[in-house]
Specification:
This protein is an alpha/beta fold. It contains eight helices and ten strands.
Amino acid sequence: MDDIIWHRKPLLSEPVAVLAFEGWSDAGNTASGCIENLCNNHDVDPFAEVNSENFYNYQMRRPVVDVKEIGERNFHWPQTSFYSIEDYKSANDIILVFGEEPAMKWKTYSENIANTLIELGVKRAVTLGAFFGQVAHTLPVPIFGVSDDPTFNSRYNVLPTNYSGPTGITSVVGQELRNNGIETSGLWAAVPHYLSSGGYPKGIGALLNKSAEILKIDIDDSGIQSEGQQFETKINKAMENSEDLADYISKLEDAELTIDEDSFTDDSNKDLVQQIEEFLNNESGEI
């Protein structure tokens, strides 16, 4: 059974790729939110998928059944999909790779993604990730970068990282792409840990803009920027209602950010996190 299921094979012009995966490397759904935003803006359907049968444990991640009408049942399985944004006005078409972190055979899974992108003619790619950090939402989003290019961090104004510890599929896939000759940058956004319950539009916008700069592509971020402004307004209202929260964020604005293993599972200051979650849940309208 083939590991890649093709629905069609697009004819692409100098394609570049943007990849993100749900799970451990996706704090606040920030990395996956980038792909979802691009898919929604361009109304694209997958042209290929990784065969989920070979890489997911269905007892750990069960399929979801959806009953449309009496007798009509659809099953939604965990999957990794390939999408294309094709624009004749652009020098580069864009391939989006989006999926859930697999449960097994990470090496084979990564090799399949790399081989598929090579077959489609991809020579440059960006992988996206996010982690929870001791950062304030009032400041610009810190973006950390990983690349084989020694000038990468200074050229694109991204922060270096010397993180050592457990890792996720995002890093494994990124290294596999590099090993296969695809010029690949890894971008990581720091997400305020007190916003751990939902999306972080400001982080999504920051990752999208930096990806566009590196890959030299045009991305319409007007929608996500508007969402970010609305979201920040709600957080600021929560600060007005809580002196403890306002004081804590003020301290974060002066703190030095570091990345360690706890950055991916941060549950410190649970009371403040719960306080802001309750406030946002009580607010009417979309975040």
